[in-house]
Amino acid sequence: MLAMVLDRPGVPLELRELPTPSPTAGEVRVTVSACGVCRTDLHVVDGELSNAKLPIIPGHEIIGYIDAIGPGVHDLKVGMRVGIPWLAKTCGECPFCRSGRENLCDAPLFTGYTRDGGYATHAIADERFTFALPEGDDIAQAPLLCAGLIGWRSLRMAGDGRRVGLYGFGAAAHIVAQIALWQKREVYAFTRSSDHAAQAFAHRLGACWSGGSDQSPPELLDCAIIYAPVGALVPIALSAVRKGGRVVCAGIHMSDIPSFPYDLLWEERELRSVANLTRNDGIEFFATAAEAGIVAETVAYPLSRANDALSDLRAGRIQGAAVLVP
Ligand SMILES: [Zn+2]
Ligand SMILES: [Zn+2]
């Protein structure tokens, strides 16, 4: 198989011919048809996350077709269209797994981080953590596997307030905005102050207001979700929510949060993070996405140009989501 491999953080990925792995017990092998590029991949490639298996094949927004199954696989069959998300495996035994919070498992595996992912022509996944999908557009749906799914979890954690602020209008926010609008909520989109293209993009999708993150929204928000990996946005978002409002940090990595006056948290404002996903989030989200007719806006790159896709994401040059096509 062909794969884009990261040998160590800080160096470009390399295109390599590798032996195509065979699925072992409980696993399936997929011929990858599309793999989204997530900001988490950038954190792995740039060394901002320290536990990566190295060398690693990044990528955890995989859509493909099963081409081989290992012993003991019951529910999935060769030829089925499936999605492989970030959560690759959990222990099933720790207090978190046993209490419906497998997203916080003590001994998890993550696709494209601690096990090989989808920047490749083939990928291996545990049957239990693979979503069977109906027919659809592989490129347009690949970003749903993380930007959509973790976006969905972050929206749920933000509560059901009407005025929703989204800080960082990229892959996740442009999907979450569509869900929030479908739920008849108002979306306020915050971007880098000079990024007028992203502000126009948010308007086109139906945001009632968009502007720079240094601007105050015209009304106080009920909740805000921060997708940009910028700690300085935390006090800014807290100052934009009403009493009792909630701020959710949705990314896996963020620069340090500057100190801020207690007044910003006072009056029962809440601040929390969202980590990973549960399989149940996926089941809920894919049903909702189908009902709401969610469509990701994508920029497709050939697999061999993964480094260009990552550079474009790092520089904020992508509208919507980047997707690699083997
Ligand atoms: Zn566990
Ligand atoms: Zn992701």
| Structural class by sheet pairing and helices | alpha/beta
User: What string, H for helix and E for strand, traces the elements in order?
Assistant: EEEHEEEEEEHHEHEHEEHEEHEHE
How many helices does DSSP assign?
8
The CATH superfamily of the largest domain turns out to be Medium-chain alcohol dehydrogenases, catalytic domain
- Structural domains: how many: 2
Q: Report the sheet with the most strands, covering strand number, pairing sense and barrel closure.
A: 7 strands, mixed
Structure, explained:
Helix 4 (171-182) links the parallel strand 10 and strand 11 (186-191). The strands form four sheets. Strands 3, 4, 5, 8, 9, 16 and 17 form a seven-stranded mixed sheet that branches. The chain has 326 residues and is of the alpha/beta class. Helix content is 23%, strand content 27%. It has two domains: 2-146 and 277-325, Quinone Oxidoreductase, Chain A, domain 1; 148-273, Rossmann fold (3-Layer(aba) Sandwich), CATH 3.40.50. The structure holds zinc ion (2 copies).
Short description:
The chain is an alpha/beta fold.
Task: Give the SSE map.
Elements: E1 2-5, E2 14-17, E3 27-37, H1 39-45, E4 62-69, E5 81-84, E6 87-89, E7 109-110, E8 122-126, E9 131-132, H2 138-141, H3 147-157, E10 163-167, H4 171-182, E11 186-191, H5 196-205, E12 209-212, E13 221-226, H6 233-240, E14 241-249, E15 270-273, H7 279-292, E16 298-302, H8 306-314, E17 321-325
Parallel strand pairs: 10-11, 10-13, 11-12, 13-14, 14-15, 16-17
Antiparallel strand pairs: 1-2, 3-4, 3-8, 3-17, 4-5, 5-9, 6-7
Bound molecules: zinc ion (2 copies).
